[in-house]
Design a protein that fits this description.
Structural class: mainly alpha
Distance between the termini: 6 Å
Radius of gyration: 19 Å
Number of helices: 13
Number of strands: 0
Order of helices and strands: HHHHHHHHHHHHH
Length: 302
């Protein structure tokens, strides 16, 4: 499994070494990443269809998802609440109106439908000749290469990160508290502790966590990881406006890696422009950490 860890992390590292100054090329990369996420989730759906007696595994998928969601949510909010006790409330003007929450929720529904479409198509395919695992592995490596290029050229410099202690602290609290929740979830489900730590290291990046865990533990566990992090993002979207005034660290941190992209518009609208740098730093660090820790913890279980 250590060789698998190297194979997956190598494209990410290579991509991060590629500077790109052309905005048109970066736009193509951004669009390609979005399209490839749909492709890989579609392939995950096909893999799920190839599982013997799939209906018997649906209970497992939802049980694992709910247990880890509850455990990591409680752990994250407890840790971030303690951070807010020290910092106090946030004040300032609101951000400009942005995309509605319902539009963001609709995007998440589409992702679930893509997996469902893969499951339906998989019923008509023969696992003997359709090499879905090989296709998924190559697509995953290409996706990680492109994500590495995105992170390198996101505009975040090391100096900017180190000079934002609030964003750094939020990211560290989310990491540590998530691992605590992951250990609790693994204990409740009688899973290997290393698998629980891997499940809790997605930090809301549902497409990546679902893909990586599916590659290592199979489509049933991968689907559970996907739903866990997707549900985390949906909960974050609903909670951010209510939490921002009194508990800004909770509002920023609970979204995890998505604070630098998907939930950023909601954060800006609720907390104003002053929140944006903090959210980007926190989300950036967690985005870098997610694939490293997921694969590292999975390798320990090998």
């Amino acid at each position: 499994m250590y060789s698998g860890l190297l194979i997956v992390l190598l494209p990410l590292a290579l991509g991060y070494c590629v500077p790109c100054r052309s905005q048109s090329i970066l736009h193509v990369i951004n669009v390609s990443v979005a399209r490839m996420v749909y492709l890989i989730l579609f392939l995950m759906g096909i893999s799920l269809a190839f599982v013997d007696n799939l209906t018997a595994h649906l209970g497992t998928i939802f049980t694992v998802c709910v247990v880890f969601l509850v455990c990591t949510t409680l752990a994250n909010l407890a840790g971030l609440w303690l951070l807010d006790v020290r910092r106090g409330r946030v004040s300032g003007e609101r951000g400009a109106p942005v995309i509605s929450k319902w539009s963001l929720l609709l995007d998440s529904v589409w992702l679930c439908l893509v997996i469902l479409a893969g499951v339906v198509l998989g019923q008509f395919l023969d696992p003997e000749w359709f090499a879905v695992d090989t296709l998924s592995e190559w697509a995953l490596m290409l996706l990680l290469l492109l994500i590495g290029i995105q992170l390198r050229n996101s505009g975040m410099k090391l100096r900017q990160i180190l000079l934002n202690p609030w964003g750094l602290t939020i990211a560290l609290v989310v990491m540590v508290s998530s691992w605590g929740g992951g250990l609790a979830g693994a204990w409740l489900l009688n899973m290997p502790l290393s698998h629980g730590l891997a499940f809790s290291s997605g930090y809301g990046w549902y497409s990546l966590s679902g893909i990586l865990i599916s590659d290592q533990l199979g489509p049933v566990m991968g689907s559970a990881a996907f739903l866990n992090d997707l549900a985390r993002e949906l909960v974050a979207i609903m909670m951010i406006p209510a939490l921002m005034r009194r508990h800004p660290s909770c509002a920023i941190g609970y979204g995890g890696a998505t604070a630098m992209d998907f939930t950023l518009p909601v954060l800006q609208r609720s907390g104003g422009v002053a929140i944006v740098p903090v959210a980007i730093v926190s989300g950036f660090i967690l985005s870098l950490a997610a694939p490293v820790f997921i694969l590292a913890f999975l390798s320990l279980g090998g």
